[in-house]
């Protein structure tokens, strides 16, 4: 399996908006964690610094930062709000408007996301607790998120159980299933396809950290897909379940 640093990604770039100035970054760091000495707080600060001091995201740096952090629940549990009534919860850890948002998702046992695109953004994910199964699909020709230009296996780093999925004449074409365990890191963009994420455990919650840059889905919504028909539907993301540890 190719490492993320070796994968050639499209040259996404975006100007830093006026909000991404020194004051905004300082405010993000100040609000992120009341205890700025934990390794998790240091990770958030390092991701923020990398994304606000370069004109475009440097994926090898971001990947290395996520990979080097060893998950310790006592450092991040304040953000990990669960709700068994939902498939998963979306908890905002940090953001700089127009540049990135960092979310902690808590997955209810046995539940999954819809098949979705990533609104022309980079998405990096790190498993903090438990396991998640990714099912990846080829982007439909002329699909809502654009054409895929890279192999479906690209972008999965440190994966176990990866392999080709089943194809079909109708609906979405499954290309790969990958089981990600604790501390593993993955990358996806619309150029690599669509995916569905599922918590395979029927008894334990899973927790994952997701970095989106730029945060297009939060600003404009994304598309969810019917795997049987390939039909796409635009959706606007709902409110966060918590913001920097405060339940909404």
Automatic annotation (TrEMBL):
Cofactor: Fe cation
MF annotations from Gene Ontology: cysteine dioxygenase activity; ferrous iron binding
Cofactor note: Binds 1 Fe cation per subunit.
EC number(s) from the headed UniProt entry: 1.13.11.20
GO terms for biological process, alphabetical: L-cysteine catabolic process
Enzymatic class: oxidoreductase
Binding sites annotated in the UniProt record for Fe cation: 116, 118, 195
Keywords of this entry: Dioxygenase, Iron, Metal-binding, Oxidoreductase, Thioether bond
Region (Disordered) location: 139-171
Known catalytic reactions: L-cysteine + O2 = 3-sulfino-L-alanine + H(+)
Coiled-coil regions listed in the entry: none
Family: Belongs to the cysteine dioxygenase family.
Protein name (record): Cysteine dioxygenase
């Amino acid at each position: 399996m190719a490492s993320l640093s070796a994968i050639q990604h499209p040259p996404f770039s975006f100007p830093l908006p006026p909000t991404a100035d020194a004051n905004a970054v300082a405010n993000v760091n100040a609000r992120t964690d009341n205890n700025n000495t934990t390794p998790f707080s240091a990770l958030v600060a390092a991701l923020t610094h990398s994304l606000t001091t370069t004109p475009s995201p440097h994926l090898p740096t971001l990947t290395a930062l996520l990979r080097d952090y060893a998950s310790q629940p006592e450092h991040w549990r304040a953000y990990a709000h669960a709700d068994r009534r939902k498939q998963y919860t979306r908890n905002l850890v940090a953001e700089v408007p127009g540049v990135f948002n960092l979310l902690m998702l808590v997955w209810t046992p046995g539940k999954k996301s819809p098949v979705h695109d990533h609104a022309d953004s980079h998405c990096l994910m790190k498993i903090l607790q438990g396991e998640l199964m990714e099912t990846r699909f080829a982007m439909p020709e002329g699909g809502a998120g654009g054409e895929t230009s890279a192999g479906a296996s690209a972008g999965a780093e440190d994966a176990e159980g990866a392999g080709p999925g089943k194809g079909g004449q109708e609906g979405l074409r499954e290309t790969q299933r990958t089981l990600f365990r604790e501390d593993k890191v993955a990358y996806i963009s619309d150029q690599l396809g669509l995916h569905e994420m599922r918590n395979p455990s029927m008894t334990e919650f899973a927790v994952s950290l997701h970095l989106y840059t730029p945060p297009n889905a939060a600003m404009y919504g994304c598309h969810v897909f019917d795997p049987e028909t390939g039909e796409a539907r635009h959706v606007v993301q709902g409110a966060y379940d918590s913001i920097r540890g405060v339940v909404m």
